[in-house]
Amino acid sequence: xNFQILDADYIGTHDGPVVRLFxxxxxxxxxxxxxxxxxxxxxxxAEGELDKLSTMLRERFDVIKKVDIxxxxxxxxxxxxxxxMLKVTTxxxxxxxxxxxxxxxxxxxxxxYETDILFRNRFLIDKDLHGMGWVTATPSSNEPxxxxxxxxxxxxxxxxxxxxxxxxxxxxxxxxxxxxCLPIGGSMPVPETSPVIMVSMSFSPAYNGHETVVLVAKKVxxxxxxxxxxxxxxxxxxxxxxxFQEYDADVISGYNINDFDVPYIADRVNILTDSGExxxxxxxxxxxxxxxxxxxxxTMVSIPGRVVVDALPLIRSQYSLKRYTLRNVAKELLDSxxxxxxxxxxxxxxxxxxxxxxxxxxxxxxxxxxxxxxILKLRLLDKHIAISQVSGSILxxxxxxxxxxxxxxxxxxxxxxxxxxxxxxxxxxxxAMRNRSSEGLKGGEVLEPKRGLLEDVVILDYKSLYPxxxxxxxxxxxxxxxxxxxxxxxxxxxxxxEFVSAGVSKGIMPSILESLLQRRTETKRKMKATSDETxxxxxxxTQLALKILLNSFYGYSGYTRARLYSLALAxxxxxxxRNNILDTRALINGSISKVILRDxxxxxxxxxxxxxxxxxxxSLSVVYGDTDSVFVQCxxxxxxxxxxxxxxxxxxxATVSDSLPDPMELEFESIARRALFIAKxxxxxxxxxxxxxxxxxxxxxxxxxxVRRDWCGLTSKTLNRVLxxxxxxxxxxxxxxxxxxVVDGVRNIDVRTDSAIIEDLTMTRMFSKKATSYKNKQPHLxxxxxxxxxxxxxxxxxxxxxxVIVAGKDLFVNRAEDPEYVRExxxxxxxxxxxxxxxxxxxxxxLGVFGVDMANLDYDSKQKGLFxxxxxxxxxxxxxxxxxxxxxxxxxxxxxxxxQSSLFDF
DNA sequence: TGCGCAACCTAA
DNA sequence: TTAGTTAGGTTGCGCA
Length: 906
What we know:
With about 900 residues, this protein is of the alpha+beta class.
């Protein structure tokens, strides 16, 4: 039987541990496959006589099943040869963590390795199986080991198990749910007092013909057949769990279920059970009851055999939004409206027996529908499924965890193959030491931008810079020269240290990266070849997953909580990177310097015997660069077409790439017809990218206020318009006019008549830590406190808090207010703050390039005297701009070229 | 007025 | 038993 591995765990039996693989088969059946016979173990590094130690271990610990002497490399450093270590096999997986500390106290024992690998991961790694990978299993005649009912269509013990190559994804079943609770007096409901009154469920594919089902804990007349009514909350919840198990979903979803719905239901079940009701909350494929664990601030939910996917954290990490309420997310990402009953009105709606209760039911239904839509329409899981397949981690681990677990997984696999052991995760003490001992990790190089408006800038970037550096220079934990001296070449990074060359010993990490890169290239090739849309999507997710993994290794190496942490390695990578971008700039400015365009080809001067009058000579100069990118300004006497600039870009890319070791590669990315550099990491460009045979244009903004969530929408919108006018139309005058009209509008805001404007004046900031650990007061903290005063509950840490600044004499931070409250109470906002602090400074940073200043913009300012106010600000601005431009020689040419175009056409 | 600091968010 | 990294700009505030 073939099935895709969704989840894995193990159970203990009197014959030792038995692994359970849960999955979904090609034909659509859910599968639970038992695999006996795999044993837990760890490694031990000791000095002295290993035979004696081995005997001592077996005598001392009766949970040790056997001890073998195996040759292994230590985790870090180039080593000429392996050394004998002990492989300790225990009876039960839990024995490994139980005895690891005691084992360390035995004489001669130096270190223990791989003592904290979850048994299911150990199994998957050793058997070369992967999360979301397909396996073919031969069912055994043996009865499946059973600890009670398994909620799967097919349950069997496997004689043999092997991974198979298969691109498709099994027909997964999704269930999204959402609960409604009855708040007492309009405040936040708590399980101790507020019952669950409705449960809304959405299914994909449908459940008995229903896409949604709503369960209601009271009798209601006039409902449809997809609404079920119950006499009590307990009966309703029992039905929920019954449907849950009957439907047998692979993916359990909802919005904020991890932090709210799941704990709430679990708590309610306990409360109801304590009061004598009978609710069995069976949800696992092994019948496990619904439960959750609090780890620090976060709630972890796991359901054996299924994957719990809360849409909220996924959306938080994948989309940059001002707010992550379901209402806002639905509006921004699905363009659909969430329906709501205000908490204060809920009781009224609930107690109604007519239209309002029906409305309430429909609203509830909508919430689980939206969660399902988010998962399916935004394809939130595709990337995670691909990462699971590529890294080998179980899907739940990929969804919940970060990059560490995927890198761990890949490293464990390859270290194992190369007979190297891996240390356990560092304890807090070691982490503290690593953090303390910091000579520090230096990062990427950011080139000083040439500020102002530039034209014809070719943008190039390094393809996977850090991974390719690691490959090119064989940088790895396993190649760093520490204990043994190599007999052969070494590589000395600019940061210091020494690594053996690939000729001496190829590093494990470079090998992993190479195979990931190769797979990515292959996947992209397949993508181009296929015409099947589903296949294309799967391949696209796969290549993206490969890219994410490629880029995770560097960060891991400099992460103090990583199993393998090496400052020498991480610093080697970035130091090569810094040198590389500086060398690239020198090469382009220096020996390349000019490119000549002739007959749709690009040449260097030395490639041509003479310069023809029809040749276009393009002079190059690097005007900006950040870590792995270079922006090259192209100056020419004549206008150069996009295709011409494309040729220049490709010529530069090829030339620079040729000068670099494989597989480092500079790629031509795009062309900015106009580019405005404000500061490092802050710029806007009118960019043209290749699209089929032609070019596709757009405006790209980096780092400026338009893309920052702690600035108000009014600023973003105004700035975007200004950038568009300046970059696309070259029309500074219109930009100035636009800003003036906006400023005018703000001056005349009357909150009482125009409460919609509040939306545009709202800023948000993340409530990033407990209120007590803030050293300084913050505007969003002020609002958080006010909300707590008003409702009794503060917003949770991690939430983005919206606020506006209201009029008054007090300190800025104290005048932050909840926008909702401002709307309801018609509180006047601080018009001056919005003009002087929100609108004008960012605008001035842009228009200042053309000589426009505050006085030109805020012409209606009541404090005219503060600024050097001019009679004819608009003319002033433009004349200044013209002069500015004329002063710069690079732009002299562009002025000539474009003197008839809109830039100076006024 | 200038400076240092905390806090935020972004680029890569 | 959580969590890849550093570089960099901007703001508000308290203080010399």
